[in-house]
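Hi V.,

You were right to ask for the full record rather than a summary. Here it is.
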Amino acid sequence: MTALQEWFKWSTKMAKSFLTMLLFLSVGTFSHANSLKVGLVLDKGGKDDKSFNSAAYQGAKKAEQDLKIELKYVEATDTNAIENLHRAFARKNFDLIIGVGFAQQEAVKKVAAQFPKIKFAVIDSDVKAPNVRSLLFEEHEGSFLVGALAAMASKSNSVGFVGGMDIPLIRRFSMGYVAGAKYVNPKINITENYVGVTGEAWNNPAKAKELALAQIAKGSDVIFVAAGASNTGVFDAAEEKKKFAIGVDSNQNWIKPGVILTSMMKAVDVAVYDTIKETQAGKFTAGEIRYGLKNQGVNYTLDKHNEKLITADMKKKVEEIKKKIIAGQIQVPDYYKKK
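Predicted structure:
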């Protein structure tokens, strides 16, 4: 074979490789060429925050495995990046784009209007548009249950709440928690603090720990935390002082067994999975989808990591409370509806 022939063979091989790479970049993989393309936009907490973003990511990954979709995810470095991330997915003609968290409301609203043929979903925000599904949770109902458990577990007659960013959504958690604790013990003392007033509050475990330690110093022996990645600070404080903490969003009992009394779980993973599945089946609908106690969208958690912390009497009592909420016999106060 001549040198010219060798060069021609080599150049042909390289050209084929280059074309293959271009094709891969354009559709992901050959096997996904005709599959549903889903883009997931996480906030700064990222897929490893052991909380809200982790739950959304897990739901999307389950859909990728079960439904053979093409999944791409990105983590926003800050709030200003969110709109561009949604637009980037839309320009690549993704079929469904999911935004995780209330901070993505305006970005989804704007980009969805610019790309009316693409379907969007947003968690914890209500965007009214013909191509947007709003996935909303009744946090106050689940918080009422863990508030009741906190009051039952408290030996000091004092419990606490540490919120992340001071916004109506987190106030909704707090209001439900306080009502649940007072339903069990009307005379219980409740201390409430927030990590901050900006998005950084979700990623400041040091400040969360400081707040929790201050609450413990004042007598709180059970602290409910709703602060994203900052939750770990409260867990550390509870472990250090041998008190109880209550997790949020996903089942966080496993993080510190024996320390985390329970978790107020939001079925974010289920909401994400169901939205992807229905979109793939051609059954996507816009509008609000609400998840509460009635459809198991929120709940308290009980598993091998905390089963020794919740007695049979505590479980019986909280299950009775749950049934009364579902039946409408207990009206849980809602911060969104307060006068």
